[in-house]
Amino acid sequence: MDKIKIKDLELYCRHGVFPEENVLGQKFLFSAILSVDTRAPGKADDLEKSVNYGELCHFIQEFMEEHTYKLLEAVLENLAEAILQKWEKIEEITLEVKKPWAPIGLPLETVSVEITRGWHTAYIALGSNMGEKETYLRNAVKELDESAGCRVEKVSDFIATAPYGVTEQDEFLNGALKLRTLLTPEELLELLHEIEAKAERVRTLRWGPRTLDLDILFYDNLVLDTEELHIPHIDMQNRDFVLKPMAQIAPYMRHPVLNKTIKQLEGELHG
Q1: Pick from 126, 130, 256, 259: most CB atoms within 10 A?
Q2: Positions marked catalytic
Q3: Where is the domain boundary, 118, 133, 166?
């Protein structure tokens, strides 16, 4: 990915742990590395197709003057999210803030914090087999799309499927969606659980009836196995109710462990 770099933008701000820092303020130096595709603006010689770094610098100034934080870490987390939400062309941003002469009671030229944040692509499976199934699914899509740091980009059709595991229950309505998100996998899982809880999801029986079931299928090409979270989702290659809606929205998405596309996995399941 191409880069646009801004180095040592000098601003006077009021951030710090000590009360006098929030009143008197001091100098801070901001640097940024923007991951953007510069080919189109470069070919067209058109600023509208690129990121106007002048506007971005003024945005940083306004944001820093309007907000006050105790920690440099908080400064960067909030600033990075605001920039990524405002400029869709920026896929990833590395931000650094330097604080000269930090008041620690010792000679110190500068202290700095640097973070890298960006957009991630996740695929989410949706299911319901209780009550107003379609309403539960559509409400979940809406809640995800309206959540901070989330954008729903594609949604499959909702399909009726036979229950999996425990077969003596009502049929399911299943779907899948493509999500662009600033959340980590753990933060995304927490959000999904919150949306399930609003739908009065009760976890009593594995594979049992539920008003709403939301699972992370993929998160970029991440392979993750923890006590709470498995990515890619376990055994998805054997579940038609996952593969069929996924084939609608991402047929050529490649499973990072099995090294096969969704289309290939669906073909093998029905082969």
Answers
A1: 126
A2: 99
A3: 118
